[in-house]
Amino acid sequence: MELLVLSREVSREGERNAKVTLASSLEINILERFEQEVVSYLRTTLKNTKLLLENEVKEQETSKKLYTSKDKFEYMASKNPALKDMKERLGLDFEY
Q1: Are 40 and 77 in contact (CB under 8 A)?
Q2: Helix (H) or strand (E) segment spanning residue 27
Q3: Are 85 and 73 in contact (CB under 8 A)?
Q4: Could you give the CA distance from residue 13 to residue 86 in angstroms, rounded to a whole number?
């Protein structure tokens, strides 16, 4: 679990702040367990004794899974409307 949190993006915010972007509030709880060790490491590595660590939760977008042929076709047709025209001209049917 700690490895998952440590692999998240860390950006610098000004001279004193480092911001960790997390995916959920669960990751905040995991980070809090070893936050002091991370801050200590960053302070010595960056040679900045006034460094503070901030965390931000940024929800990830979930995409709808495409399972059926019809779902896949509708997704591709939304990207390229000419597919619907071709389907009608050729008389294709994706439902079995």
Answers
A1: no
A2: helix 25-46
A3: no
A4: 52
